[in-house]
Amino acid sequence: MQIYVNEQELDAELTGEKNLQQIYEAVSDWIADHKRYILGLKVDSTDVSLSSLNAIEAAGVQRVDFYVGDELDMVLTTVGELDRYVDQIGATLYEIDSVGPEDAENLREGIQWIRQILHSFSSILSLDLSAMSVLVPGSQGSEAIDRIIERLEKRVDRFAQDNGRAAIEDFLEDLRSFKFFVMKLYLQLRTMSARSEDLIAMVDEFEKRIPEIVQETASINASFNAGKDFTALETLDRTTGVLNEYIAALYALDYQLKKSRGRGFQEIEVAGVSFFTAASELTALLKDLSSALEENDIVATGDILEYELTEKLSALAPYLTEIRRFTLAGKA
């Protein structure tokens, strides 16, 4: 049998493994020592499920291809699986009028799997995912992911007493909020996996564009005041998207520097205020802005734009200068 890892043939022989499950475990243990993970595999050029490996005898296989990646690659793959699983739950519940005992038990096990996945992400990436929040449609703002998952668990338990369409709709409402979180997390992790050169270029671009973004932010409020709500909302959507992308790049670059140098942006301060404090305040403002828009509160939106967001953006510029210096000094 030939064993390939990322298209490179392994110079290794079997040591008594009888089936593919045993070979899978041996390869997994070997690459785990190098903090690598199996992302997928093919048996004789065919995709197979992990559950079937124990039944496939090694003697009847000519070639096994393992596809491996680092921690971030593994998390990205898992988030993709999580996204598809959430879509599958939503599509199934959308088509039924009641939830049977077996369906409820499957949902309960699925939510426990989601909890385990999020806990693993926290450990692997050193991220406090339990403190992350998402904007909840129709609510008074954002909610912590833990609260949303707890509510999903309670809604599953309630299916024992009320399993009709109204109860399903309540469950789907929280599931949609979780779906937004998964999408946001996937985009952030994709940014984390970008090349450091690309992330540095984005930070440089952000620093140069801050005056332009500040001016654009001021123009949004002017459009609101002139009754041009559609123009204002269109510009606001574009601007907040750009800001979220730049902030994600900053956190991704910090993550990569911690991995490569052992230290990131935690030491960067301006006037005694840390970068993470300034970045968190800006992120919180963007959340407040989203909440105000969700509630159709144009007055609150205008106040945030005119009195807070432009100030926080301008205050962030010196940090970007220090981050560029810090990054270049490390490369030198």
What is this entry, summarized?
With 332 residues, the chain is α+β, with helices and mostly antiparallel strands.
Task: Give the low-confidence spans.
Answer: none
Please report the distance between the alpha carbons of the first and last residues.
47 Å
Q: What oligomerization state is this entry in?
A: single chain
The strand line-up of the biggest sheet is 2-1-5-3-4
Strand portion, in percent? 5-15%
Output the number of helix runs. 9
Helix/strand structural class:
alpha+beta
Question: What's the β-strand tally?
Answer: 9
Largest sheet: 5 strands, mixed
CA-atom Rg in angstroms = 24 Å
The level of helicity is: 55-70%
Mean pLDDT: 84
| Envelope shape | flat
Order of helices and strands: EEHEEEHHEEHHHHEEHH
What does this structure look like?
- There is one protein chain.
- Helices cover 67% and strands 10% of the residues.
- It is built from nine helices and nine strands.
- The protein has helices spanning 20-32, 71-95, 101-125, 145-158, 165-192, 196-225, 229-261, 275-294, 298-331, and strands at 2-5, 8-9, 37-43, 46-47, 63-69, 133-135, 142-144, 269-270, 273-274.
- The strands form three sheets. It has a five-stranded mixed β-sheet.
- It is flat, with a radius of gyration of 24 Å.
